[in-house]
Description:
The protein is α/β, with parallel strands linked by helices. The protein has helices spanning 3-10, 20-23, 36-41, 57-64, 91-102, 136-152, 170-174, 176-189, 204-207, 230-237, 248-253, 263-277, and strands at residues 24-26, 33-35, 71-72, 108-115, 118-125, 156-162, 194-202, 216-219, 259-260.
Amino acid sequence: xxxxxxxxxxxxxxAKRETAETLWHKCKGCEAMIFLKEFEENQSVCxxxxxxxxxxxxxxxxxxxDDDSYNVLPPPVVGEDPLKFKDTxxxxxxxxxARLATGETDAMIxxxxxxxxxxxxxxxxxxxxxxxxxxxxxxxxxxxxxxxAIKAKCPFIIFxxxxxxxMQEGILSLMQMPRMTVARSMLRDAGLPYIVVxxxxxxxxxxxxYALLGDIHIAEPGATLAFTGRRVIEQTIREKLPEGFQTSExxxxxxxxxxxxxxHDLRGxxxxxxxxxxxxxxxx
Length: 284
């Protein structure tokens, strides 16, 4: 044992202290410093400028479902790293890091529960998991959730948040687009509502497929919703795009969405929609 190790081991253990990073949150909208606890209690919405921060499946389920009324569906089992992909890191290492950081198995988590006593299946994409990218596990999770909704004869709601297809799975990730489109058709054939809530950001192959195939399209305020980036479009068409292009409000004004709904009002709006679209499905 060298002297550095001896000195380090001799230092008494000091519990981790609360720091600025654990006490405060800097709003990405107005850059105001907000107590992290206050921000989280406000459903990750800035109390000063109303900027909607990104939230994961667990937080979304807790805010949406009736108390203790939901069960998370089992995660799908798919082949990992089918292409043995490696860039600066191995794909398997990226998956392990994402799982460690989020505590989730992949970028889409589904649950069955009740909203105001109405049974519903909800899937949530987690942008924190490799940018919410759509790979085989996401495709399988979507199909499983649709089957669960059909079995329960209840509506299916999905919260999208993704940068698009997962490049590490190549063509196998793109194949999920037609698979999920077919699953969406199964819902329609069963006469069940499919409600899409687009959150920040939703883009790429996700935006080009199941994110815009809903019976009802809702978006959170200020979300970036696009197929490709603003800079790429401007360089391609050699024109300056209008202010606010690719935001929820812009898409609403141009007929791409049915409504833009504040996160605090979302549960009530979804409850109303379920009642309108599937009144006979209300739980006893």
